[in-house]
What we know:
- The chain is α/β, with parallel strands linked by helices.
- A seven-stranded mixed sheet has the order 3-2-1-4-5-7-6, sandwiched between helices. A two-stranded antiparallel ribbon has the order 8-9.
- The chain contains seven helices and nine strands, in the order αβαβαβαβαββαβββα.
Amino acid sequence: MNNHWLERTELLIKQQGITTLQNAHILIAGLGGVGSYAAEFVTRAGVGALTIVDADTVSLSNINRQLPALHSTIGQAKTEVMRARLLDINPELKLTVIHEFLTPERAWEIVTPHFDYVIDCIDSITPKLNLILAAKRRHVKLVSCMGAGGATDVSQIKVTDLMKTYNCPLAKFIRKRLKNERIHSGIKAVFSSEIVSKDSMQRTEGLDYKKSFYGTISFMPAAFGLHAAATAVNYLLAKQQNKENVNL
C-alpha cells in the first residue's frame, strides 16, 4: 500500500502505529452529523477496514450539519455518498456498507468479536441500546455518542463512563435502561455537560424509534464525531503500545 498520504501521521505515531491502524476494523453505526465525521476522521487516521451502517437518505434539513449532505446529494443514500468520499480518501480502504436501519435484532447480528472497535452514533433509543448491549455482551470495545442537539458550547463536550454523564436527556434514558440490564459501568460515552435548550425541542411521530429531536448547530455533531474517532484510534494505539511493553 502506498502510505505517502499518511506521512504526517507516521511522523507522529511511527510505522508501528500506522500498521496497527491499518490492521484494525471499526464499525460505525449511524452516518448523520456525528457518524459521518467519525467515519471521515478514522479513515484519514489510516484505519484499514471500516463497516458503516445507515438506511437514511440525504434531506434538505441535513445540510446544516452532516458531512454527506449537499444540495447536489439530496435524495441519495448517505452510505453511498460516504462510500465515494471515504474511498477517495483511501482507495485501499476495506469498506463494508450496510444500507439498512439497525433494528434491535440486526444489532445483535452485526456486532461480532471480529470488530476492534464500535462507534455508536445512533440517535434512537431502542436501536442504540441494543447496539451497546451487543458490544458489551460480546466484549467489543465501544464508544457511544449521546445527544449533540440543543447545545452550542464545544468546550463542554467530554468523554467519560456513560454512567457518569449528566445534563443529557438521551444519556439519562440510556443509563436507566442499562441499569435494568444490570450494567453499571464500562461503557465510554461522548456527551455534553451543557444544559440542553428545551425551547429547541420538537416532537416527532415516533418513526424509527425517535419521538423528539433538538435544534442543532453545525459544529456540535462534528465535534462529537471527532471525540468518538479520537477515542477509538487512541485506544487502538494504546493497546498496541501496551502489548509491546509487555513483550519487552
